[in-house]
Amino acid sequence: MSRKKVDSKEVGLELGLVLGRYFLKTDDLHYGYWPEDLEVDVVNFPKAQKNYSDFIFSHIPEGTQKILDVGSGSGNFAKRLIEKKFSVDCVSPSKYLTNQIHDKLGESVEVFPCIYEDVKTEKHYDLALFSESFQYINIQEALEKSLELLSENGYLLICDFFRTDAKGRSPLGGGHSLSNFQEILSQFSFEEIENIDITKETAPTIQILDDFLSEVGFPFRDMISRYFQSNYPGFSKLLNWKFKERFEKINRVYFSG
Length: 257
Ligand SMILES: C[S@@+](CC[C@H](N)C(=O)[O-])C[C@H]1O[C@@H](n2cnc3c(N)ncnc32)[C@H](O)[C@@H]1O
Description:
The chain is α/β, with parallel strands linked by helices. The protein folds into two domains: 8-196, 3-Layer(aba) Sandwich (Rossmann fold); 203-255, no CATH class. 48% of the residues lie in helices and 13% in strands. Helix 4 (95-105) links the parallel strand 2 and strand 3. Helix 7 packs across helix 8 (233-242). The termini are far apart. The structure holds S-adenosylmethionine (SAM). S-adenosylmethionine (SAM) binds next to loops.
């Protein structure tokens, strides 16, 4: 019998929710939006996330009623949409997050418990919303599926990070190449209405994550490593040998400056 492996990105998101809930009292899984007058401090993170939600709300096209929230996280944003009288369905491939959505929203939404690419329904939506979920989905498939699920004159609202051709190493792993996205998008019948760059307003979150790694992540990694090397040197060597590439990748992605 084959056993499906647990996806590390999903575990990362679930862990993010658990930590965010406990330490920051937030149920959102997005980066946040920092206007100039909001001090960049971790205590202001929930406020930045609320700003981000407000920003998305303010860009929902007039006349929109039915929204498909693709990659709904814990359902927090869907909840706010429902409070604003939108009709909402959710796409959620993570079992853990899907349970959170059910707990939060009960029968008020239909949840498709699968990846977007696999959604099957007769329903059509006025808007397919991708709030920091587009990066996880193959571009071509996401656009094809959206054409299938959107009503005539329906909208796509994508708010996510993309890789540009800027020099240097990106502080974030993942994200689609912006030029590749635009190239593929141009082959579809979608018409661009707005294209807003909010890098400046979201970047402070990277600063906060960076500070967290320096203040907590590095010391924690070094303490664990020192403990294993001094108390279990043989086991430690075996681990380092067996997971050499995995550890190098973790160091490169999360711990290199
Ligand atoms: C960073 S969270 C964003 C959550 C929420 N939209 C928000 O703004 O707080 C990414 C979400 O995308 C979902 N996701 C990952 N791969 C997906 C896929 N192929 N199709 C649909 N959703 C996906 C994850 O389960 C998670 O809910």
